[in-house]
Amino acid sequence: MVDDAIEHLREVRERSVWREMPPQVREAFSAPPPVSPEPLGDVYGTFRDQVLPYSMGNIHPRFWMWYMGAGTFTGAVGDFLAAIEGSNLGGGNHAAALLDGQVIGWIRSMMEFPETASGTLVDGGSKANIIGLTVARNAMAGGDVREEGIAGLSQQLRFYASDQVHSCHQKAVELLGVGNRALVRVPTDSECRMDLGALRSAIAVDRAAGFRPACVIATAGTTNTGAIDDLPAIKALCRDEGLWFHIDGCIGALLAIAPRHRHLVAGISEADSLALDLHKWLHVPFEAGCAIVREASVHRATFALHPEYLEEKPRGIAAAEYLFDYGLQTSRGFRALKVWMTLKEHGLNRLGRLIDQNIDQAQYLSDLVRSDERLELVAPTLINILCFRFNPGGLDEAQLREINNEIMLQLQEDGTAALSDTTVHGRHCLRVAICNHRTRREDLDVLVREVVRLGESLMIGSLIEMPLYTRRAVGGQALQPSPTIQIKPRSRTSGKERTSSC
Ligand SMILES: *Cc1c(COP(=O)(O)O)cnc(C)c1O
Questions:
Q1: What is the 3 state secondary structure string of 208-220?
Q2: Where is this region: Disordered (predicted)?
Q3: pTM of the prediction?
Q4: For residues 320 and 107, is the Cβ–Cβ distance under 8 A?
Q5: In whole angstroms, how far apart are CA 473 and each of 470, 479, 489?
Q6: Engineering a disulfide at 211: which of 121, 128, 206, 312 sits with its beta carbon 3.0 to 4.6 angstroms away?
Q7: How many Cβ atoms are within 10 Å of 91's Cβ, its own excluded?
Q8: Contacts by residues 177-181 (CB-CB < 8 Å, ≥ 24 positions apart)
Q9: What are the phi and psi torsion angles at 46 (to 5°)?
């Protein structure tokens, strides 16, 4: 298994980014529960043949969809050793718990938080944000939310974030019982940063209407474009207004260790709470996120609970602080180990340089896009996220969406590259998020070449083909062909061809 694993990683560049699963593979996963034992070698063989070749592709150097890291071998070994070691990191007097605490201390120091700050490792950024926002809600509620619930509060709470805020915050406010309407989306400027004038007015309007403004969620690195809200200004505003200052740093917080770009997140250490993701720019395999809270006592006051079967003892295995006092889980895995091993093996300088490298690559790609008149940048490229589209001229927004969507899908089906798409201030675009330590500039050359080639062949195809319908449109409904350009998608069976069937 280990030999195959090493080979799998060594040869990642030679493989397609992704491929569609054949029907027999799909069917294999609807088999009933196994009743009799099967030799482990056979079990592994099924994994090797039916899972490994059909992965998402995010460890590939040309995977730039959504936003995720590419993992490392060390991280994988860390997960393996953590499972062998086997401790429950809910707490206890053992070395793994101390190691967990050390990792929190390291992250606190990387983010330049004071020693009085607390933190907890969680499964990802969504959970880290929920931790931060729960502490914020309880600290700012003006009543005892743990005892009375939000129904017991005399005023309804309000949270503020930009209209670019990650969707996990909506889930958070829904879970926290304050509801989606309590999350005020503040408009953004042309660089997709929160408009602070609009924020101030929104707060004033809410106060006048009898609401209780509680918390501003700043984003350091938005998912759409990588924009970074003005952290020092939002901090000052929160101080003036008496609000909690939470930062969603799932993308950008780790810029703090990047030698040439740390200035972009100056002020991050001023947050009352901070969420960051270690399975993104630290390249730790899934799952690993972290929440940091400036005042440990406020953090504990939100989550600590000690039933009679979970008391701390003066000696023995329970003679330590319980780590579940800082979050939602009771049992916790030893995810700290892969983070600890990654940080130790590479050191902050090298990990920081990898972040700089991805930003340089995004600038390189921006230059390629700018220098080709068939391509258009749709948002400014600040860090490692690039929004662009094939736009040879003469197409309206609906046609541009259709052709770029088809380019994106064909790139995936070819196994050439994985991009996602989004819509920024009303304009649809392809989105490249380079959070990948395996990416090289030549991969970006391939991307630009293929986007242009596919775009042009789709344009030519559209002139000679009779109206056709795009396959697999959202909700299974075919899109209506637009009047002047019909894009013929490639059929499923021609996935190997390099040229469009148009
Ligand atoms: C990825 C991301 C999240 C969610 O993090 P997960 O690790 O996927 O749960 C939240 N906010 C931002 C800005 C992100 O990029």
A1: HCCCEEEEEEEEE
A2: 480-502
A3: 0.92
A4: no
A5: 6, 6, 11
A6: 206
A7: 22
A8: 177/149, 177/150, 178/137, 178/150
A9: -65, -45
Inside any domain, residue 275: yes
Report the domain count for the chain. 3
Out of 310, 345, 380, a domain closes at: 345
Task: Determine the distance separating the centroid of ligand 1 and the alpha carbon of 225, expressed in angstroms.
Answer: 13
By most ligand atoms within 8 Å of CB, the mutation choice from 65, 121, 168, 217 for ligand 1 is 168
Rounded to 5°, angle at Cα 69 from 279 and 175: 45
Which tens digit of pLDDT belongs to each residue from 222-256?
999 999 999 999 999 999 999 999 999 999 999 99
- Res 265: pLDDT: 98
**Residue 321, both tokens:** 């602080």
Q: What is the per-residue burial (b if ≥16 Cβ within 10 Å, else e) of 161-179?
A: bbbbbbebbeebbeebebe
- Residue 15 lies in domain: 2-55
Among 183, 229, 251, which is best to mutate for testing ligand 1, by the most ligand atoms less than 8 A from CB?
A: 251
Residue 366 lies in a domain: no
Least confident of 135-139, 306-310, 357-361, 450-454: 306-310
What are 336-372's pLDDT values in tens digits?
A: 999 999 999 999 999 999 999 999 999 999 999 999 9
- For the cut 60, the answer to whether the pLDDT of residue 87 exceeds it is yes
Using CB distances shorter than 6 Å, the residues near ligand 1 are: 67, 124-126, 129, 166, 168, 219, 223, 248, 250-251, 277, 289
